């Protein structure tokens, strides 16, 4: 009577199946890490935009005469800086507003990817885009609108400032 030979190749099949399962798990882990990096990047840009919007609000709070006179009501396009102010010829509230806006826009351009922003009076501040900020010039609130581009989409942050 002859003994049957043990099956051969079974361990090799198990090893290949294990390798395929582990490879799929590793690919899933890599995909999860890449997604996490993308979300983290978006959160970092949102945080930076919040800091810049707060900076604009602080600049307005530092110039209450300019806010009361409506100097911040429609700051849409960057203006050239007026001549330097001095102790002998101090800046007017309009010049301060224009300087604040000019410097704030320069910070936006330097710190955000394709960063743009407007400060305007707007009854419906949550609308608009970088190309058309949709500032209606009415209402009691000033809106600081920041737009930037990340990963093939445009993001925005709106901060409403009550003068």
Automatic annotation (TrEMBL):
Domain annotation Type IV pilin Tt1218-like: ranges: 31-101
InterPro entries given in the database record: Pilus_4_PilV (IPR013362), Tt1218-like_dom (IPR054402)
Protein's name in the database: Type IV pilin Tt1218-like domain-containing protein
Organism listed in the record: Sphaerotilus natans subsp. natans DSM 6575
């Amino acid at each position: 009577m002859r003994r049957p030979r043990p099956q051969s190749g079974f361990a090799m099949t198990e090893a290949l199946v294990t390798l395929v399962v582990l490879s799929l798990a590793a690919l899933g882990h890599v995909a999860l890490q890449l997604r996490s990096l993308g979300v983290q990047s978006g959160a970092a840009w949102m945080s930076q935009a919040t800091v810049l919007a707060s900076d604009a609000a602080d600049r307005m709070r530092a110039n209450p005469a300019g806010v009361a006179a409506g100097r911040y009501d429609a700051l849409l396009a960057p203006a050239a800086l007026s001549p330097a102010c001095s102790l002998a010829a101090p800046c007017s509230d309009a010049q301060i507003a224009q300087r604040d806006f000019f410097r704030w826009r320069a910070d936006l351009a330097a710190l955000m990817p394709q960063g743009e922003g407007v400060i305007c009076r707007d009854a419906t501040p949550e609308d608009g885009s970088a190309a058309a900020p949709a500032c209606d010039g009415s209402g009691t609130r000033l809106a600081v609108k920041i737009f930037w581009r990340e990963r093939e989409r445009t993001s925005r942050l709106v901060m409403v400032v009550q003068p």
